[in-house]
Amino acid sequence: MIKIYTLGGYEEVGKNMTAVEYDGEVVIVDMGIRLDRVLIHEDVEFQKMSSKELRKLGAVPDDRPIRNKKVVAIALSHGHLDHIGAIGKLAPHYPDVPIYGTPYTIRLAKSEIKGEEYFEVTNPLYETNYGEIVQVSENLAIEFVQITHSIPQSSIVVIHTPEGAVVYACDYKFDNNHPYGERPDYKRLKELGREGVKVLIPESTRVAEETKTPSEAVAKMLLEDFFLYEGLEADGLIATTFASHIARLQELIEIANKMGRQAVFIGRSLAKYTGIAKQLGLIKMKGSRVLRSPNAVSKVLKEVSQARENYLLIVTGHQGEPGAILTRMANGELYDIGKRDTVVFSAGVIPNPLNIAQRYALETKLRMKGVRMIKNLHVSGHASREDHRYLIRMLNPESIVPAHGEFRMLTHYAELAEEEGYMIGKDVFISRNGHVVEIP
What we know:
Blueprint: E1 2-8, E2 17-22, E3 25-29, H1 35-39, H2 51-57, E4 70-75, H3 81-84, H4 87-90, E5 99-101, H5 103-114, E6 125-127, E7 133-135, E8 141-146, E9 155-161, E10 164-169, H6 186-195, E11 197-202, H7 216-227, E12 236-240, H8 246-259, E13 262-266, H9 268-279, E14 289-291, H10 294-306, E15 311-315, H11 325-330, E16 341-345, H12 353-368, E17 372-374, H13 385-395, E18 399-400, H14 407-419, E19 435-439
Parallel strand pairs: 3-4, 4-5, 5-6, 10-11, 11-18, 12-15, 12-16, 13-14, 13-15, 16-17
Antiparallel strand pairs: 1-2, 1-19, 2-3, 7-8, 8-9, 9-10
GO cellular component, one term: cytoplasm
Enzyme class: hydrolase
Organism: Thermococcus chitonophagus
């Protein structure tokens, strides 16, 4: 029997964590945080808090159901914080258990661990290549299958058991025209379907959208269509997107170069994600600058304000996060933002009440200053209904446990599964955080 412990992300978008047990041995997949549960408390210092305190806030998964199990490996699907942000808090519960992931994911995980101030993390971290199968016990092996998402080197994680594969697909989309060559490994996914998939654990965030998620090439075209238009009249140009979206950042660098402007990255998270990507050759920073220290930010923004037409500022703050660069600009700090400036949002609003409220406040402040705003030059990194349908048909899993979504999203996935011949309660299982699904 295979047991699926649904520890986090099964009644929300965030703090993803799943554990797969076979014959008394457990593989954990992902250890994420739920950022909004941290941000609503102004005095919370995440790095200095215990997992118990953060669990009470609902910020990290409750891993107590597996705390005394024999955990043989921790696998990380990709580098977003809702999948790796709790490593420093939860990995110490499983001392010396190895952590595996692709090179970019593991280096981001190391960055999270480096900032941890409450626990000492002793787990070894291993960079794993696509196509490599790692034997983690006599009965269990893990594999990372290449997939596309909104961060480099994302994976579908496969846990091989004697009863068949458990396939964890959170997060992904099928991008067949990625501007920088990333491609889903359709060949391997189809092979897994032929070999036998016991359980599919898919994300459900956008399954209600009856379409296929567009390629990143569409986002690139949207950005170029705006920025490279001959009639564009703008002095100050400011763009904001996810700091981890390396492809989008690469597009903005290339656009700035074509415009004869210098791309200037401002914000700690932008410096972190681009720095690691540069080490691995995942981004070309030619012609751009990255500002890390507060002194450098203040100095350069004074220069920019005197010659706005020479720069494309790329800043943090697309969700209206307190302390982010764009939010501080809107508050009248750092840079005299106003009628001479255009702000391009190359990101959607994360659908939770805190983000929606913060983004509303940010846009209102910018509007009051007379800033021109261009929104939604963006495509999602998450699978829509037809991406999901294609994955089901490729893998032909015996059972499905939808993940990564609020309860309504999980049920939307179950509806799709029923269209494909499955039945709720028989081979599709809707779970909640802290529960276990037994697969006979």
